[in-house]
Amino acid sequence: MMFKKILIANRGEIACRVMRSAKKMGIATVAVYSDADARSPHVELADEAVHLGPPPAAESYLLADKIIQAAKDTGADAIHPGYGFLSERESFALACKEAGIAFIGPPANAIAAMGDKIESKKLARDAGVNTVPGSEGAIDSTEDALTWANKIGYPVMMKASAGGGGKGMRLAWNDQDVKDGFEATKREGLASFGDDRVFIEKFIEQPRHIEIQILGDTQGNIVYLGERECSIQRRHQKVVEEAPSPFVSPEMRKRMGEQAVALARAVGYYSAGTVELIVSGADTTGEGFYFLEMNTRLQVEHPVTEYVTGVDLVEQMIRVAAGEPLPLTQEDVALTGWAMESRVYAEDPYRGFLPSIGRLVRYSPPETDENVRVDDGVAEGGEVSMFYDPMIAKLITYGEDRITAIDRMVEALGRFEIVGLGHNIDFLSALMQHERFRSGNITTNFIAEEYPDGFQGAPADHAQLRRLAAIGGFVATAHADRNLLIDRQLGHRLQPPSQWQVKIADDVFDVTVSQDDVSVNGEGTGLSMAYSPGDRMVEAEFGEDVIVVAVRPTRAGFRFNSLGASHDLRVLPAHAAQHAQHMIEKIPPDTSKLLLCPMPGLLVSLHVGEGDKVEPGQPLATVEAMKMENILRAEKAGTIATINTAEGDSLAVDEVILELE
To answer: Which DSSP category does 187 fall into?
Structure first.
């Protein structure tokens, strides 16, 4: 019998996602929320909402007893856990069962078997699944970690046994990396998952991260729904996912899928689940794939599978939990077209991807249709806080082939407007335009290899800068025309300038705007566009080419964001530009002797004291932000003069942690 009311034990975009499928099925929904989420979209979308407590997850979204009581009080006959929080806790699934409330997910024994990475690896090996060489169990000390690392052979990966989502993981290339990272891995595991056990396994070089989506029912039917390529990662956190993979052949897909189903069957699995595999990109036999872990829940990247299979995974999870059989067999599963997903994070790629929190002053995602989907749980005026995951939204595009899906992603990212905090939209667009990515020749090392010195924006050639200069002159003319109208109302008789000097980085362009065209350095551009002062997004046509540009006025001109890069344009009337060279350049203050907090966060530990001598690269402090620990290191040799903070302090951006002599 189908459920009448479902409580979603989660927040943000996944809570909204579950509610949409439930409402489509005619099922009422209940939201739960913390103080920080009182006005969040998932609360507004639900039919009912129950308050849990303060913002920290341990005092709200992780309170299983309170959530089950909320289900009882509202008459919900089922709970969907989403992902994260309580979704993979055996105790929560058992508590739901004891309370007579259906848990929309797998059986508790399967969660227990697969939730422990150490035990799941043994089960996978017994089920005939390829596994990666590694430690035989949890490692208790740094000394034991060093012993195992040397036995396995570097590089190795240290992983929290209960970890996931890129948290509780450290890559070690040598003994020093193990010494620096083992205890931090244990702390992250304990802080994020309540479990500080750590294991070590061989790190596969030139690896691809590929996962198989499975779906099973309580009657014993299990199918695999193809694979997802999740190799574009930063710090082991997924950034871009796609389905299918450009690397996997039909034969390899079949072998992977059959092993995933065998593992699921071995633990009596039902509902949606994902078997994650690490694949050697150098392997040409189709056998070079190894079991990483099984996620006994819905994955963040499930929309790409939904696009290419036509299966609503959330709906099927609900139907399976209600006792219905799967409506399809393995022969019915077909992959059609290509889907791409970009995770829009609250982080600043221009500042080393530091976490960014704050209010969404502007939030305007692109328009959606059958080829563009936005999964989010935020709204303009809302706040991205330090208490939860930094993901703002997921942008998904579909195409008949991979390049079409990529091109639609570039266009959709160009129309995604976020103002008020740092975000990674430029970086995502740059990835989509990167020739190596477009070729499909990717590994989990892609970002580290292609952006070794950080991200400075997608490269723009002279032709693109020339077009931006033309747009800059047009926009400046529009502002001058508005000012002229005001001047005329005041009785002034000024003429607006039509000739401009536009400077973009080191390139200088002479722009002339007339009624017929906009010329740059004496050559026409064929620019056609409409702009009124105050417009935040413009479309500029150059013949058949259309460029979308986000416009923000600055003191010296405008900041343009377009095609994966931020460009500062200094725009001056031609007659005034000749005087610009005489302006005194403002020299920024010297902060080389200060250790500044790069993001809002908690000072977990100080590794030095006043009077200590330090060398370049030496750890000075550890700051936790958005559930991740960040080690701050010395940039040069020196002596610690003063320490301005204490362990346990909450720090703001650019707050001085310590000073060097």
So the answer is: H
pLDDT in tens, 271-323: 999 999 999 887 767 778 999 899 999 999 999 999 999 999 999 999 999 99
Cis preceding linkage at 244, omega within 30: yes
Q: Is residue 475 part of a domain?
A: yes
For residue 52, what is the domain's CATH number?
A: 3.40.50.20
Is 655 marked active-site? no
Instruction: Show the tokens assigned to 432.
Output: 């989509």
The alpha carbon dihedral of 82, 88, 93, 95 has a sign of negative
Query: Are 442 and 467 in the same domain?
Result: no
Catalytic residue among 227, 293, 341, 347: 293
> Whole-angstrom Cα distance, residue 644 to residue 463?
49
Q: How many CB atoms lie within 10 A of CB 516?
A: 7
pLDDT at res. 355: 83
> Contact, 645 vs 620, CB < 8 A?
no
Q: Over the stretch 156-194, which tens digit does the pLDDT of each residue have?
A: 999 998 776 667 889 999 999 999 999 999 988 888 788
What letter does residue 131 receive in the DSSP assignment? B
Backbone dihedral angles phi then psi of residue 593, each to the nearest 5 degrees = -95, 10
Is residue 250 reached through a cis peptide bond, with omega within 30 degrees of 0 on the bond before it? no
**Positive or negative, the Cα torsion across 147, 151, 155, 157?**
negative
Domain count, the chain: 5
Looking at the fold, whether 21 and 99 belong to one and the same domain comes out as yes
Nearest to 159 by CA among 128, 116, 126, 130: 116
Angle between helices 402-414 and 425-433 (to 10 degrees): 150
Count of CB atoms within 10 A of residue 568's CB? 14
Angle formed by the axes of helices 108-115 and 90-98, nearest 10°: 170
Query: Does residue 627 share a domain with residue 569?
Result: no
Tens of pLDDT, residue by residue over 245-258, are: 999 999 999 999 99
Task: Give yes or no for a contact between 61 and 387, defined as CB atoms under 8 angstroms apart.
Answer: no
pLDDT number for residue 483: 66
Residue 496 backbone phi and psi in degrees, to 5: -70, 145
Task: Based on the fold, state whether residues 197 and 251 are members of the same structural domain.
Answer: no
pLDDT band at residue 635 using 50, 70 and 90 as cut-offs? confident
Separation CA 206–CA 499 (nearest Å): 53
Confidence at residue 10, expressed as pLDDT on a 0 to 100 scale: 98
| pLDDT exceeds 80 at position 488 | no
467/532 Cα distance (integer angstroms): 19
Which CATH number do you get for residue 330?
A: 3.30.470.20
Q: Residue 105: which pLDDT band, with cuts at 50, 70 and 90?
A: very high
Q: What local confidence, expressed as pLDDT, does residue 206 receive?
A: 81
For residue 623, is it within any domain?
yes
Same domain, residue pair 196 and 213: no
Looking at the fold, whether 429 and 485 belong to one and the same domain comes out as: no
pLDDT, tens only, 23-40:
999 999 999 999 999 999
Give the Cα separation of 625 and 604 in Å (integer): 10
Q: Can you give the pLDDT at residue 485?
A: 61
**283 close to 210: Cβ distance less than 8 angstroms:** no
Q: What angle do CA 40, 396, 251 make, to 5 degrees?
A: 135
Range of the domain at 651: 594-660
Alpha-carbon distance 354 to 410, whole Å?
Answer: 23
Q: How high is the pLDDT of residue 625? A: 77
- Cα gap 228→341, rounded to integer Å: 10
pLDDT of residue 629: 80
Tell me: do 305 and 435 sit in the same domain.
yes
